[in-house]
Design brief:
single chain, 407 residues, alpha/beta, four-stranded mixed beta sheet, globular, disordered C terminus
């Protein structure tokens, strides 16, 4: 895709593959020991690093079957032989069920390597900082679909303050339930139900736009899951918020590929519409929370009044961008930082990225976005490598073989 930032048009990387791999990337903090970073579960890449250079492997894809896992293992072996040698440290995501995490921990135990767990959204932020040759501190606005949070919830709408070695969670999107867990990713109408239940309380009525696509009995069952929390983890995911709005608009009730609902909602938006829905800030236990309940109520009200989906989609994008910019500006001022990192798979959305970046820059903040790597999980492995190297340099080393460094 092509994005306009700071008045300049440039490509937005979605997949770093032929023509880019195996070109090396610099590390702003050198890796004292050779290391391997195993990446995430979806859009997987791996990364090997030694001294000041890192080599990110080709797009492997989703580690869901034997074929992709074999490609992952063979690719790592090939890159280690070509570039970095045998690793002494293995970096990985915190999610215990990712196949990439299991590979990292199994290998660390088998070969007597150190392991370093890196939180998913910290890796997104670190990847962007590192490719720009920076170490921080910075404010990170990290929006994606899912990422394992240290509190056991599903993160995905995060405001982080940190550098390559460490981070602090400053704020997040209002948390809601994911009814049925991963089923809510495949069926965005479930997130519409969860957000309506959160915005209005009780059991929300089935919206007219979904009446022909969702069985009323299933809607009622999912509303019960959202209310009780049974088999429904909490999430702060902006990706799931996009799903909810797309379903409420009747754009997409079910998806056949990742991000389909959000893509089609962006395509439906009217570029001439400049209005935006409200999304106030509230404070929770010292953190800033972007409260999207009012936004959901505004979406529902406009749809009930017969406002065109194109206008509703545009107002949603604008409202989210404007509220995020307002919050980031105030938090940056409070913390004394002037640099903001925008990363995560949601920022493949050009409308949101351009409007948010413009809002930040108008207020005097410097904005960094991924350029040589994708904002999605294809950049996670490089971020893990940058974090592991920075921790080494800071003296944050494991005390014994196989002892993980955890956020």
């Amino acid at each position: 895709r092509v994005v306009t930032l700071g008045g300049q048009r440039r490509p937005l990387m979605l997949r770093r593959s032929r023509g880019f791999v195996p070109g090396p990337l610099a590390l702003p903090v050198a890796a004292d020991r050779p290391l391997l970073a195993c990446g995430a579960q979806l859009k997987n890449t791996f990364c090997v690093a030694r001294a000041e250079r890192a080599w990110v492997g080709p797009h492997i894809g989703d580690l869901e079957n034997y074929e992709t896992l074999r490609s992952f293992r063979e690719g790592i072996g090939h890159f280690e032989q070509l570039f970095a040698g045998a690793p002494e440290i293995v970096a990985h995501d915190l999610h215990p069920e990712y196949l990439s995490t299991k590979y990292a921990l199994d290998r660390a135990e088998r070969e007597g390597l150190y392991s370093s767990g890196v939180q998913h959204h910290h890796a997104h932020m670190a990847a962007c900082l590192a490719e720009h040759g920076e170490t921080g501190p910075a404010l990170g606005v990290i929006f994606d679909g899912t990422g394992y949070g240290p509190d056991g919830t599903v993160w995905g709408g995060e405001l982080l303050l940190g550098d390559l070695a460490n981070y602090e969670r400053m704020g997040y999107l209002w948390p809601v339930r994911m009814p049925g867990g991963e089923a809510a990713i495949r069926e965005p109408w479930r997130m519409a139900c969860a957000w309506l239940a959160e915005a209005y309380g009780g059991e929300p009525p089935l919206p007219a736009a979904l009446a022909r696509q969702v069985d009323p009995a299933r809607w009622k069952a999912v509303a019960s899951l959202a209310r009780t929390g049974l088999a429904s983890p909490l999430t702060t995911s902006v990706g799931r918020l996009f799903d909810a709005v797309a379903a409420l608009c009747g754009v997409r009730a079910r998806v056949s590929y990742e991000g389909q609902a959000a893509i089609e909602l962006e395509q439906a938006a009217d570029p001439a519409e400049d209005g935006g829905y409200p999304m106030p800030e509230v404070e929770r236990s010292g953190a800033i929370v972007l409260d999207a309940r009012e936004l959901i109520r505004a979406v529902r009200a406009d749809l009930d009044e017969g406002v065109a989906v194109s206008a509703v989609a545009a107002r949603f994008h604008n409202g989210l961008a404007d509220a995020t910019a307002r919050t980031a500006v105030s938090e940056a001022a409070r913390r004394g930082v002037r640099t903001v990192v925008l990363s995560g798979g949601v920022f493949q959305n050009v409308w949101l990225l351009e409007r948010l970046a413009a809002g930040l820059e108008r207020r005097g903040l410097r904005t960094l976005v991924p350029e040589r790597l994708p904002p999605n999980d294809g950049g996670i492995s490089y971020g893990q490598a940058a974090v592991a190297a920075a921790r080494q340099a800071a003296g944050l080393r494991p005390l014994g073989t196989g002892l993980a460094l955890r956020d």
